[in-house]
Every structure is written in C-alpha cells, then in structure tokens.
Design brief:
The structure holds three protein chains of three kinds. Chain B is mostly helical. Helix content of chain B is 80%, strand content 0%. By secondary structure, chain C is of the alpha+beta class. Chain C folds into two domains: 228 residues, P-loop containing nucleotide triphosphate hydrolases (Rossmann fold, 3-Layer(aba) Sandwich), CATH 3.40.50; 126 residues, Nucleic acid-binding proteins (OB fold (Dihydrolipoamide Acetyltransferase, E2P), Beta Barrel), CATH 2.40.50.140. Chain C has a six-stranded mixed beta sheet, with helices on both faces. The chains are: A mainly alpha, B mainly alpha, C alpha+beta. Chains in contact: A-B, A-C. The interface between A and C is medium-sized, with 21 and 26 residues.
Chain lengths: 303, 279, 376
C-alpha cells in the first residue's frame, strides 16, 4: 500500500465514522438519555416544567408509582398490548398464506405481485387510513355489506340497521392490520423463499401428506420470518398514535395518545417520559432477547 | 416448482382484494359529484379543481417536498457513510454502539422518537439558546435522523452481500483506499444508494407522528394538514389528493421497475455474450 | 441371492418401466424408455447432466408423472400414486436433512406414519444408527456433522422405512475423493445386507462401475446401452458409449476385407492396415469407426515379436500419474495415439519406458480393437 497521506486512516476514514457517529450520539442517544432522566423528575409549574429532588436520592419514583396504580395508565397499556397482539396474529394469518403463495407462483407473476405488496407502502400511510374511514362509515357500501352478512346470520330479532365500526377498538385493529400487512409479508416471504424445496420433497418422500409437510418442515423453518414479521407489526402497532386518533374510541385511549396528552395538554414532561420508558422496556426487551437468541442460533448453525 | 394449492390461491386473491379495495374505492369516489364521500352522485372532476385552488394544501405540499428532498439527500450521505463504516472498516472502537444506535429508531415506536427528540430540542433551546423556535430546521434534523437509519440498513445489507475481494483486488492493483472507495465501492452500491434515497424520500414525505412533535406553528407538512382535516371529517378533496398520490406513485414505481428490469436484462445479455466470446 | 450379480438380465421384473416418456413443454426429457430391474439389484443410471436420468428417478419417486408410459413396482401400477404413498424412498443429492431435527428425529421421521409402537420405532432408529455407525451422533443436528456423516444420515433415513426401492441421487457427489472410495463400498455392503433394490443416478462413471451390477447409459432422454459394467467398458455397443465410458482412441476406418476370424481395416489417420477380431457380422458398410483403449496398446522401444498390428511412432509428450503414465505418440500420418503404460518398476529416469522424442513401437491385440458402424 502507498505511504500515509491525508486520506489515510487518521483522516478520511475517521471522518466517515465520525460524522454519522456524532449525529447518532446527539440526535438518537442523547434524547433517550433525556427521556430516561426526566422519568425520575417531578413536574413543577415553571419553565422547564420539571425538577429533580434536591436531596438524596435526587431521583423520584412517583411517576412509576402512578403508572402502576392509576387505572388510566394500566388500561392504556392493556388496550395497546391487546390491540397489537390481535393485529399481529391477524397479520400472520392473512400474511402467511400470501407469502407462501408468492413463493409458488411463476417468476414473472411473482415480480408483479411482490411489487403490488410494496406499492401501498409507497403511497401515503394517512390516505390508506383515510380510505378505510370512508369504507367503515355507517353509509358506505362496505358497512352495508357487513351489516347484510350479519343480518343473514343472526335471528330476526337481533337485526340492526348498521354495524358501528368507526370509533371502536375493532376499527383500530382492522386498520392496523391493513397498514402493517406488508411488514409481515415481506420478511416472511424472504424467509420462505430461502427454504430448500427439496426438504418438502424429502418429507413427502418419507410419507407425509402436504399438510403434514407444512407442519413438520415449512412452519418450524419459517419461525425466524414469523418472529421478524411479528416484531415489525407488533412494535409500531403497540405505540400507534395516528390510527386510534382517527378511527378509535377516544374514551379508551392507547399508550401513544396518553403520552401525547401528558406531554401536550398536561405539560407533565416527567410523566410522559415515565410512560415512554415503560413502553420502551416492554417492547424492546423481547426484541433484545430475540436478537440474542438468534445470534446464538446463528453461531450454532453455521451451514 | 411446487404448484399453488387452491387454498393458497384463494387466500392470495382475498389478500390482494383486502389491500386494494380501499384504494380503488378512494379513487372511484374522488370522481364523485356529491359532497358525501360514500354515496355516489355522478361523475365529476370538481374536487381535483378545488385541490389546486386550495393554497393551504399547495403550501403544505411544497414544504413537504422541500423537506423530503433535503432530508433524504443528507440522510443518504450520512447513512451511506455509516453503512460503509459498519461493514467495511472492520472492528473499530464503538462499532457495536454505532450499530445499536442506528437500529434504535427502527425498533422504537415513533411516538417515543417524537417525544424524545422534542425534549432534546426544548432542552437545547434552554441550554444553548438554539433552536429558539421549532420550524424547518428542527423538522429537517428529525427527518434526517430517522431516514438515516433506514438508509444505513439498506446500505449495510447490500454491502455485506458484495464480495470484498473485488475491493481487495483494487487495493492489490495499487489503488489507495480512498480511490477504491471512489472507483469500486460506491459505483457498485450505487443502485442501493439510489433506492435508499427513494426510501428516505418517501418516509420523510409520509411521516406524521415525528413531524407532529417537532414542527412549529406555520410549518404544516402535507400529512399534518391531512391529519388535521381528516380528524374533522371526511371530505372529497382528500379523495382527490389521495388518488393523485396513488397515481404518481404507481407511475413512478412502474417506470423504475421497467428501467431496473431492462438494465438487468441488458447485463444478463452482456454476461452471456462475454461468456460466449470467451469460449 | 442365488442370482449371479453380474448377469445382464434380471431374473424377475420387480421394477418395470414401460415406454415412459416425459415432456416439459416442447422439451422431451425422457424419450420412450423401457427397462426392468430385478429384486435386490443395484442398478445405475449413468449420463451427463440433462440426459434425463434425474427426471426418470423423479418419476420413480412420484415427484413427476410420466407424460405417457407406465411404471410398475412389485407388480403395482404407480400411475396417480402420490410420492407419500409409494413404497419408494430417496436419498437426495443435497441430502435434504431437516436442519431443525436431530439425527435421530431425521431418521425416525418417516416412521411417524407407519403403524408401529414407540418402542418398535425406537428400535428401528437404533438399528439404522447402527447400520451407518452413527450411534454417538444421535442427538446432534445436521449442521454439527461432517459431509460424510450427513450422507450416512440421509441413507439411514431413506432406509428406515424399509422401502421396496431406494433411489440414490448422486450419492457420492458431495464427498471428497478419499471418502468416496470408502463410501462406495459401504453403500454396496448396506445394499447387500438389506437386500433392498437400489437405483443410483450418477454422472460419474467410476461411481456407477464400482457400485452397480448393471448400468444404463443415458443420452438425450434415451438409454444407449444397458449392460454390466464390464460389458459396457469392454464391449460398448456404439461409438457414443465407447467414448463416454473411459478414454479411447477413435479413428475413422475403411473395411478392406473380412475373413472367418478377422476384419481387415485401413486407418488412413494412422497410415496402417489393422486386423480386428470379428464379433458378429458387420453389415456390409465400408465406412467404420475403429476404437481401442489406451491401456490395450503395448508400447516398447524394441520391435515386438509379432508383426500383427504393429506401428512405429515418436513420443510427443507424456503425463506421469504415479501408478501409470499416459503417452501421446505421434504417427507418421500425423495423428496422435494415446497409450497407457503401467509403471510397474520403481523408476529412476532411465527405467522409464520412453521419453520425449523416443522412437517407439506400438502393438494392439486384434481382440482389443472395437469396430462400430456409426460414424462421428
């Protein structure tokens, strides 16, 4: 190699590392530190609206105490986790067959179909939510369709004019599933596509019918895809702010709305921070556990 | 190839109907004469006209566009640097920390990113007097930050799939490291850089949550405006806006995929020609 | 088994393929193939890639349905019978071991669908582990095994169900040269012990020759010759087979005359007239192909005792392989003859039979010359 000059390790490569590093420290790391610190402060009527205790231990645990005692917060967490779980399961149930189907269509069609999965993602997220608002309203063809189906199934005495979909938890779940379905399908597809087809043939050769082959071979081997897709749906769904604000039940808010309220309306920065920290811990812990598990599995499974 | 079972075919059809029914419904009702969004009242393009008369919407769209262009460009530069550092610079001090930080915004709910970034701005204003007010600069910083993480992800995955030996060959042939970067690495990952930029651009253009925390009065991006309007109720001009966006995106995606397919085919042909010539 | 393992026809028709054709769109992968395989036979389908041997194998396994023709296994027509209902198991080229199951689970997988108690199943798995000598590895996962061990797991898994027919797709393809030789004998031993009918698909002639009792040589969808390894090598039925199996000197020749014992042929490329032992009647064509294997040519620096089929040439170059050497000898007419000479002496330089630019005599036994009526 040539002798050192301005571009050698000390100069240009430090710049390439340093610039994004500095950015990440200031605008990613620092904010998280601030939130974590503020969650142990107490709110005051001043600017800025918080202070730390003047005496040992300087940190207050009041916010977390409130978090675990006030039913509003507990309920918000419960609703968020419930909605996110149901939405994740539904995404899986809809997305898995689609992803599996995508691996089995001819190559030319596959390209177009994959693009059609991604296409809605490139359009505006808000507009996709908006489209459903139109469809779920009491006068829409979609609502009439659902109402009609419902009335066919149930006895006459229970007949209704309209199903109330808007402003319910069901609407939130429904739209979350719609919005995040591509995030489930794409990692699943990537995983399923990599699977060795001869494994299916081997299982079939050893006497398993197609359904059994799926349960014994395809499903267990697609676990990494299921978990990746599940996390990509579950995490944003649990922290969702926009969808519940538009189609959800306002008297039964999710965590995102609570954080936003504490911050914006109540100016209670410490409480908003405490809820944020709690949410972060609940959501990110399983993720870290998963990546640990996966890196260990990879270390074991060098193929 | 395994054949598609009837069950999978049915599920796929239903899935695509689910994905596209609301979008098609949105487009159809954008041509509705009636003010009511869900009841058909005859064909009309009146709402498209309204859209272009609405200066509020046009201003918001212009702001969103400027913001997306600037933030995507800066985020692509920063994210590519981070990606190259993470994949090609070997172990350096703080590498794990950097890769951890870069992925954080990806795994955090947007609300948390929004709140924490806003708190940073508020405290910075108090400590160093900047930013005195929230506006374009705070929006830009926030958008760069989360776009950058997506860019880095795209670049790292592309870079790690490229055989490092072509870069080593260039070093072996006497190029200095920065020349290798300029002559080999960047040209090879240029398609990834382009798609990363597009991703950053779209994400910035589409963001609601983080924008809602970091913008200031008078700085309403298009999604913020739409969010505010939709909260008040459904209006047909939003349908028109949505249809326009869908049309632009569909055309863009189709064009780019045609271009990509063509260039891939050309490359395949060239490779084949080279192989045939070699024999 | 009373049957001579080297006999050229099966004593029974345990597996019977009758005028089977398989088309993929316009492409005919297998073209009207018929063959019978006896019970307990170790049969090989040999051919280069794309010759249709794998398609034929997949039709036996049930992964592909023939476009026309029939396949019988133990007297039963296999048409419309799904792979999971056939008494056939396969050892895949990639082994296709389930990565998420242990060796034990892999081997026992096929037994899940058999009507047997858990202890019977465990016994069977243990017996299989014994058979392939992997007892100590029962709890390991495939990625913790070496290539040779994986190969044996795949074999045990396919054998566990005691199929009527075992298909082996390039069974030694992924192994290195040393391991290959050892595994060849292992497979042959296991076949002998279990008595199961084996069909091996391979592109490696050495593999086919050492493993199989009979070989079918396939080319562009059809069988070109079906015979014992020895007959395929010594008595190839066509110019194609002669050049496909082993190495051979091939020359265009012209029939001059034939008497009771010999055919006399002129070979312009060598510039001599040779006599070849007649086997059966030549059908009166005068343009022939003459072929002889390099190891059947005797080379010496002194003129040989008999003048029959003797030629003189100059050593152009040679390759030393240890146990033997390959010489390329230039004939006065310009063509090259390849000659194999065994290095049966521990050689210093001067012991070598010949070296560059040496004048040498070549002699070929009339019985070693093969004549074909098909031309290049």
């Amino acid at each position: 190699m040539k002798p050192a000059s301005w571009f050698d390790r000390r100069g240009w490569s430090d710049l390439i590392i340093g610039l994004p590093y500095a950015w990440a420290i200031v605008f990613i790391f620092l904010p998280i530190c601030i939130v974590s610190a503020l969650s142990f402060a107490v709110p005051i009527l001043n600017s800025p609206p918080y202070e730390f205790l003047k005496t040992w231990p300087y940190l207050s645990f009041d916010n977390f105490q409130r978090l675990f005692s006030d039913s509003i917060y507990i309920r918000a967490f419960a609703v968020s986790l419930f909605n996110a779980s149901i939405a994740t399961v539904l995404c899986l149930l809809i997305g898995y067959p689609m992803a599996l189907g995508l691996t089995r269509v001819p190559k030319a069609v596959n390209r177009v179909l994959l693009m059609m999965i991604v296409l809605p993602f490139w359009t505006s997220f808000l507009l996709r939510v908006y489209a459903w608002i139109g469809l779920m309203g009491n006068n829409s063809w979609f609502n009439h369709l659902l109402t009609g189906l419902y009335n066919v199934v149930v006895p006459q005495a229970w007949h209704i004019a309209n199903i109330q979909i808007m402003y319910t938890n069901f609407a939130v779940i429904f739209v979350v599933v719609y919005s995040y379905l591509p995030f489930m399908i794409l990692p699943l597809y990537a995983n399923l596509e990599k699977l060795d087809r001869t494994l299916d043939e081997a299982a079939m050769d050893l006497g398993s019918r197609p359904v059994q082959v799926f349960l014994d071979v395809t499903l267990p081997l697609s676990m990494p895809g299921i978990i990746a897709g599940g996390l990509l749906v579950f995490i944003p769904a649990a922290g969702e702010l926009v969808i519940p604000s538009l189609v959800g039940n306002q008297s039964d808010p999710m965590v995102g709305a609570i954080i936003s309220q504490e911050f914006g309306l109540n100016h209670d920065w410490p409480m908003a921070s405490a809820i944020s920290v709690a949410l972060l811990v609940i959501l990110v812990m399983p993720l870290m556990a998963y990546t640990r598990f996966q890196s260990r599995a990879e270390a074991g499974g060098t193929r | 190839m395994k054949r598609l079972s009837r069950f999978l075919l049915t599920m796929m059809c239903l899935g695509y109907v689910y994905l596209y029914a609301p979008i098609i419904s949105l487009i159809v009702f954008s041509f509705n004469k009636s003010r009511l969004v869900t009841v058909w009242g005859g064909f009309s393009t009146v709402w498209y006209g309204r859209l272009f008369e609405n200066s509020q919407i046009l201003d918001a769209a212009w702001l969103s566009l400027r913001l997306a262009l600037t933030s995507a460009t800066i985020a692509t530069i920063l994210g590519t640097m981070a990606g190259i550092a993470l994949v090609r610079f070997g172990p350096f001090r703080g590498r794990t920390m950097l890769s951890g930080l870069i992925t954080t915004p990806l795994v955090m709910p947007e609300v948390l990113t929004g709140v924490s970034t806003l708190l940073l701005f508020l405290l910075m204003a108090k400590w160093i007097g900047w930013p005195a007010r929230r506006g374009f600069s705070t929006l830009l910083i926030a958008h760069i930050t989360f776009s950058m993480t997506y860019v880095t992800t795209v670049i790292t995955s592309r870079l790690s799939s490229i055989d490092v030996s072509i870069e080593e060959a260039a070093l072996d042939l006497g190029s200095a490291p920065w020349q290798v970067l300029k002559d080999i690495t960047l040209p090879v990952i240029s398609p990834a850089i382009l798609s990363a930029w597009l991703l950053a651009f779209t994400i910035s253009l589409d963001d609601v949550v983080i924008t809602s925390f970091t913008n200031g009065p008078g700085y309403n991006t298009l999604p913020m405006l739409v969010w505010a309007k939709v909260r008040l109720g459904v209006t047909p001009d939003i349908n028109a806006l949505g249809s326009l966006i869908v049309a632009v995106v569909a055309i863009g995606v189709t064009l780019s995929s045609i271009i990509i397919t063509r260039s891939e085919r050309r490359r395949e042909r060239e490779i084949q020609a080279a192989l045939a010539g070699g024999h | 088994m009373d049957r001579d393992p080297l006999s050229a026809t099966p004593s029974d028709r345990f597996i019977s393929v009758r005028t089977v054709t398989k088309q993929f769109g316009q492409f005919t992968a297998v073209d009207r193939v018929s063959l019978d395989i006896g019970k307990g036979e170790l049969f090989a389908l040999l051919g280069s890639s794309g010759c249709g041997k794998t398609t034929l194998l997949r039709m036996l396994a049930g992964f592909e349905e023939p476009t026309s023709g029939q396949i019988f296994i133990d007297g039963e027509d296999m048409a419309g019978i799904a792979p999971y209902h056939r008494p056939v198991n396969m050892m895949f080229q990639s082994y296709a071991l389930f990565p998420h199951m242990t060796v034990e689970k892999n081997i026992g997988y096929g037994l899940k669908h058999e009507r047997m108690t858990k202890s019977e199943r465990d016994d069977r798995v243990a017996a299989m582990l014994d058979l392939v000598q992997l007892k100590a590895f029962a709890r390991r996962h495939p990625h913790q095994l070496s290539g040779g061990q994986r190969q044996r797991v795949a074999l045990a898994r396919a054998l566990a169900k005691q199929p009527k027919l075992l298909l082996l797709d390039e069974p030694l393809g992924a192994l290195d040269k040393k391991l290959r030789e050892q595994t060849q004998f292992e497979i042959a031993n296991i076949q002998y012990e279990t008595g199961i009918t084996f069909v091996v698909v391979t592109h490696d002639q050495e593999e086919a020759m050492t493993l199989a009792s009979r070989i079918a040589i396939m080319d562009s969808g059809s069988i070109r010759q079906l015979d014992t390894p020895k007959n395929v090598y010594e008595f190839p039925s066509s110019r194609f087979v002669a050049s496909f199996i082993g190495s051979v000197n091939l020359f265009d020749a012209e029939l001059v005359r034939q008497d009771d014992q010999f055919a006399h042929i002129a070979v312009p490329e060598i510039g001599v007239t040779l006599q070849a032992l007649r086997r059966g009647q030549l059908h009166g064509k005068t343009r022939l192909t003459c072929a002889f294997r390099p190891e059947k040519v005797h080379m010496s620096r002194q003129p040989p005792a008999s003048a029959v089929n003797t030629m003189q040439g100059v050593v152009q170059d040679f390759g030393y392989f240890g146990k033997d050497s390959l010489y390329r000898v230039k004939m006065p007419a310009g063509s090259l003859i390849r000659v194999n000479a065994t290095n049966d002496l521990r050689a210093g330089d001067d012991d070598i039979v010949a070296t560059w630019e040496d004048e040498v005599y070549l002699a070929i036994d009339p019985a070693a010359i093969m004549l074909f009526e098909d031309e290049a």
